[in-house]
Amino acid sequence: MTEKNIIEMKAVEKRYGSFRAASDIDLELKEGEFFSLLGPSGCGKTTVLRMIAGFQEPSRGSILIDGQDMAGVPANNRPTNMVFQSYAIFPHLNVANNVAYGLRGKVPKAEIDARVTEVLEMVELGGLHRRGANELSGGQRQRVALARALIMRPKVLLLDEPLSALDKKLREQMQFEMRNLQQSLGITFVMVTHDQYEAMTMSDRIGVMFDGRLMQIDTPATLYARPCNRAVASFIGEMNILPALLMEEGNSLLLIDAAGFGRMQIERNPNASGHARDILVGIRPEQLEIKAEKPADYPATVQGTVSNVAFYGENIHYHVAVDGIDTLMAVSVPNYFHTVDFNRGDAVWLGLQEASVIDLGKDK
Ligand code: ATP
């Protein structure tokens, strides 16, 4: 990745009639970055991608690619290429002709042939030139679609749910392959997905969208550790969300009283709003300790009863009912010793460290 901005979106908005599909989109992407737009169905991810591609014009704001204002520049004159969810490959053409399609009539045949061979090697389809498109597996079709976009040598590759048609195992394999390919080529990838794991495993940074707005743009690690509000916290991984009372003490440290856990000092979320008293806090399931006896070295503890045990192989998930908390507390324990320590109905203690409490601000 370089320090150069390859894409700059400034105050971009897209309206369909009176409906705002995207609002206040401010985004700067670095050259060579793998960026994902993540959010639930209908939040406006594809709209943002299509505006970068030039398939749709913004209603307001500006989009610069490689320093050039894209207003009025048609899709085929932009330094971008798109890989569609459906792959959009031609079933009656063989692999080589599918991949060569965009170059036909633009460069000499000998160069096309050389570039087809080069790009098929890149996506690990070397030697499959003559194979018919309808004789390919799902993973191979996906690679053909990638090759077809990459042969155009775009500065930015746009990917709309590129892996969603593949089964789970193949999808995970392609996630690594695409990430490796992106890093070795150094091309900027912008990917739309509603799959948080896909976004987290592949991306340098993720923009989380809700209701047409980019709510938080951060690295996967920061999004997981410090989601800015309830919506982001619930969308990325599993999160226990509890109401708490917040009191200011000194300049930066606050005391909370999350239901049942007693008083603690926590770090302030810089994005959280002003002087609210009632806030929400988030606690990741793996940050809770579960013990038969009261854990000695935890500043905050509560008692509860195991209501559900789920075995996931690499870890074990417990749901624990705690007096005074409406929802069950989710606890995740790594399965180091291959034993399930607690069963439904067992009385347990939960322990919590102050640093594991995330301030999610007001319930908005
Ligand atoms: P998905 O994951 O389901 O594809 P998305 O986050 O990509 O969803 P968009 O396709 O960007 O969402 O759509 C955002 C909103 O804009 C949706 O409510 C959609 O119905 C609406 N929308 C999209 N295209 C148009 C259009 N051409 N005319 C009117 N409304 C549209």
UniProtKB/TrEMBL annotation:
Gene Ontology cellular component terms for the protein in this record: ATP-binding cassette (ABC) transporter complex
UniProt-listed Enzyme Commission number(s): 7.6.2.11
One Pfam entry name: TOBE_2
Source domain of life: Bacteria
Alphabetic keyword roster: ATP-binding, Cell membrane, Membrane, Nucleotide-binding, Translocase, Transport
Listed name of the protein: Spermidine/putrescine import ATP-binding protein PotA
EC top class named in words: translocase
Gene of this entry: potA
GO molecular function, a single term: ATP binding
Species: Shimia aestuarii
InterPro entries per UniProt: AAA+_ATPase, ABC_SmlMolc_Importer, ABC_transporter-like_ATP-bd, ABC_transporter-like_CS, Mo/tungstate-bd_C_term_dom, NA-bd_OB-fold, P-loop_NTPase, PotA-like
GO biological process, one term: putrescine transport
Function: Part of the ABC transporter complex PotABCD involved in spermidine/putrescine import. Responsible for energy coupling to the transport system.
Domain ABC transporter residue range list: 7-236
Catalytic activity: ATP + H2O + polyamine-[polyamine-binding protein]Side 1 = ADP + phosphate + polyamineSide 2 + [polyamine-binding protein]Side 1
Entry-linked SMART domains: AAA (SM00382)
Gene3D superfamilies, per database record: 2.40.50.100, Nucleic acid-binding proteins, P-loop containing nucleotide triphosphate hydrolases
